[in-house]
Amino acid sequence: MSSGIGSMNVHILLGRVKSEPELRTTQSGMHKLSFRLETERPNHDGRVFRDTHNIVTWGRKAETVGNILKVGDVVQITGRVSTRSYESRGEKKWMTETTA
Predict the structure, then answer these.
(1) Cβ atoms of residues 37 and 17 within 8 Å
(2) What is the pLDDT of residues 50-79, one digit of tens each?
(3) Are 48 and 41 in contact (CB under 8 A)?
């Protein structure tokens, strides 16, 4: 950044695991765990609004978390937010996820 001001990309979430955590191994042998986390917040009239977040973690942490996490668990996640694109059926799509 040219302004000399530091920057930070921190996402802190507290919510309930919404999908079965999926542990995969990449072609290079790295473990990747992904799951969805649901958070709640009140909207302007007091009703509860639910957000779903895509969570991913890598390596040894993915293995460890994958062995203990299950649907319905309440967890706090700290990580960084990133957006990536991918192609599905010839159409470009975007995904935002938190890397814990």
Answers:
(1) yes
(2) 999 999 999 999 999 999 999 999 999 999
(3) yes
Are the CB atoms for 33 and 25 separated by under 8 Å?
A: no
User: Rounded to the nearest 5°, which phi and psi values hold at 60?
Assistant: -60, -35
Site of tokens 């975007």: 94
Q: Which helix (H) or strand (E) holds 82?
A: strand 74-88
Distance (Å, whole) CA 32 – CA 99: 10
- What is the rounded CA–CA span in Å between residue 13 and residue 54? 11
In this structure, what token pair is assigned to residue 97?
A: 């996820």
Whole-structure pTM value = 0.83
The candidate with the shortest Cα–Cα distance to 98, out of 8, 7, 12, is 12
Return phi, psi of residue 85, to 5°. Answer: -110, 155
